[in-house]
Each structure stands twice: as structure tokens, then as C-alpha cells.
Amino acid sequence: MHVSAARIEPDFPLAAGPDLFKTVSSHWPSGVAIITTVAEDGSLHGLTMNAVIALSLNPMQYLISVDKGSNTLPVLKAARRFCINFLGEGQRDTCMLFASKASDKFASVKYQFSRTGLPMLEGAVSCIDCDVDSLVPAGDHEIIIGNVRHIEHFGGEPLVHFRRAFHTVTPG
Ligand SMILES: Cc1cc2nc3c(=O)[nH]c(=O)nc-3n(C[C@H](O)[C@H](O)[C@H](O)COP(=O)(O)O)c2cc1C
């Protein structure tokens, strides 16, 4: 098949507003994770995220992208470690709790501490502890690359987010 070079049409109205950006992004189905961390005073913090990527196998690294307005971000940067809780299908309420600005998100959820001392939420499919490797400013977010230290896989079906609603996986 012959593909001609793209023509540049300077008067063509470009469609790239923030509403369209959000609509298109919401049409990309993703799993949902809660990133947890521990402050120096022992208090627990976390937020719901879907900007979570398995970045590298050798070394094993994950990438997360956190809004600069997140209350969890400064705690995470100071702690230099975090746990990625990949949510299970029964964790919709927990997902919305951690997407809020509630002051103590851990008061009403069950969790246990991982081998490295980070909160693993009950019902998660798997949990990955990371040490912060590097930080990269990116627009209104901050990219955090973490080196994997410990992995727990509990199993179960994942929670899926698609078109601003929750779904479960149905084999096709
Ligand atoms: C499905 C879903 C995915 C989200 N993904 C992200 C994300 O990737 N990065 C981010 O910074 N916030 C994301 N959020 C928004 C945060 O969870 C929300 O801003 C939260 O209130 C931040 O809490 P904090 O300020 O206590 O850290 C997401 C929310 C939902 C519901």
C-alpha cells in the first residue's frame, strides 16, 4: 500500500481541547491502582491512580504520574517509597475513597503491612513495593520512577475503569 506524505494544512481547525483530551483518555480502558506510602510520623497516605506503567524488566521498574496538587505527592517524595495496590473488582468504594481528599483514608479500610512496611489494602489483586529511583516534572504532573523491591500476588479479578465508570473483566 502506498501512503502519501502528510500534507500540512495551516487553516485546518485543530481539535485538541482539554474536554476532548479527557473524553478520549476516558475511552482508554485501564486497571485501577491505589498508591500507598508512609510518612515519617507513621501516618498512612494514598491516592487512586490509573497512570501506572510497568516500565522496565531489567531492572524491574514501575512508572507512576502524580498530579502536582496531590496531598500524597509530598509525602511520597519525602518517604521515597510507595506501594502499588492493583485493585480487585470488589474495591469500587475503596477506589472512590482514595480518589477523594479525605483526611484519613485508612480509617475505614482493612490493610496489612508488606515486608517492607508499606500498606497493602485488603482485596487487592497484587501489591508492588517500590523505592523511588527518579522524579521527572511533566506538565501539571510529576513522573515517579520506582525500583521494584517486593511483589505480592494474591490473585482475583481486577477492577477496570472505562468511560468514567467501573467494569469487570468478561472474557470475550
Ligand atoms: C479512576 C481514577 C484514576 C485516577 N488517576 C490518577 C492518576 O493517574 N494520577 C493522579 O495524580 N490522580 C489520579 N486520580 C485522581 C486522584 O485520585 C485524586 O485527585 C485524589 O483526590 C488525590 O488524593 P490526594 O490529594 O489525597 O493525594 C484518579 C482518580 C480516579 C477516580
Short description:
This protein is mainly beta and 172 residues long. The protein has helices at 18-26, 72-79, 92-98; strands at 30-31, 33-38, 44-49, 52-57, 60-67, 81-86, 111-113, 119-121, 126-138, 141-153, 159-162, 165-168.
Describe the protein in words.
With 172 residues, the protein is mainly β. It has one domain (31-168): Electron Transport, Fmn-binding Protein, Chain A (Pnp Oxidase, Chain A). The chain contains 3 helices and 12 strands; from the N terminus they run αβββββαβαββββββ. The strands form 3 sheets. The protein has a 7-stranded antiparallel beta sheet with strand order 3-2-6-9-10-5-4. A hairpin with a 2-residue loop joins β9 (126-138) and β10 (141-153). The longest helix is centred in the N-terminal third of the chain and has 9 residues, at 18-26. The chain is globular, with a radius of gyration of 18 Å. The two termini are 32 Å apart. The model has no long low-confidence stretch (mean pLDDT 95). Flavin mononucleotide (FMN) binds at residues 32, 47-51, 65-67, 70-72, 99-101, 161. Flavin mononucleotide binds at residues 32, 47-51, 65-67, 70-72, 99-101, 161.
